Amino acid sequence: MADFNWNDLRAFLAVARTGRLTAAAARIAMDHTTVARRIAALETGLGAQLFDRSPHGYALTPHGERLMPTAEKIESLTIRAADELGEADQALTGTVRIGAPEGFGSYVLAPLMARLADRHPGLDIQLVAISGVLSLSKREADIAVTLSAPREGRLVSRKLTDYGLSLYAAPSYLDARPPILTRADMAGHRFIGYIGDLLYAPELDYMQAPDVDIHVALQSSNLIAQLQAALAGAGLCVLPDFIAAREGGLRRVLPDAVHLDRSLWLVTHADLRPLARIRAVTGMILEAVKADRTMFTGT
After folding, report:
1. Contact 259, 163 (CB under 8 A)
2. How far apart are alpha carbons 25 and 138 in whole angstroms?
3. CB-based contact 267:144 (threshold 8 Å)
4. Burial group, residue 118, by CB count within 10 angstroms (0-12, 13-18, 19+)
5. What does DSSP assign to residue 90?
6. Which DSSP string corresponds to 266-292?
7. 168 pairs with which residues across the strands?
8. pTM of structure
9. Which of 65, 250, 31, 2 is nearest to 242 (CA)?
10. Which pLDDT tens digit goes with each residue over 214-268?
11. Which residues 6+ apart lie within 8 Å of 209 measured at CB?
């Protein structure tokens, strides 16, 4: 192909992963007209249409699907080459995006960012703490903390930690209502929880108590919103112990009768795992969790 340009492939990958010119342009810091021009140049050079255009966005054609794995291999080699040059200069530079559940992201990773910045001032750290999952395969994040190990894709995972969840409420709520001495006493109390049809992981489906009639009167897709509602005295809420321990003003309810165990996993893409900046950030995440192990597991 004449006048091949790596930036044409960058534009192709960004559009393939986002489905829209504007989103692709924002991801790779190009003007959307430039992205469109590079896609057109790539299609002309290859003599093949790579996308079907519609008002709903860009969808890969069979030719585009065939190009995708090759483009991703070139991308991985380019990233690795740039990283190795950075190592040769003994400087860690570039951007690392971390995706994590909002609770772990807000209470563990956000405080860690100061140490990351001090130890590696050449890195730009992006923390995406959301109620959902970012795709490493689509390069929506470089590192992800997830509630389960991935089952497909070229992803490498390791268990980060187990953690416990318990039932909590504010004293203002508990003092104004009948005491909760047994599981049966939970019936009739107001619960705070997730919106069922917006659960992004089965591990978040806590409200399964066949022996008690539980009514989740207040629902949010966001754990931090649930926490704030519990702190305000809105009701009973199942919360990770490592978060509740960092908040004053919550009492643990039925500690011997209501307890759940879950796990967190640290995931990277196989192509990015060898990069120095990825190793540096994952290493610090592992280090921070290990140092605070008792907060997660209670042992």
Report:
1. no
2. 15
3. yes
4. exposed
5. T
6. EEEETTTTTSHHHHHHHHHHHHHHHHT
7. 237, 252
8. 0.75
9. 250
10. 889 999 999 999 999 999 999 999 999 999 999 888 999 999 999 999 999 999 9
11. 183, 186
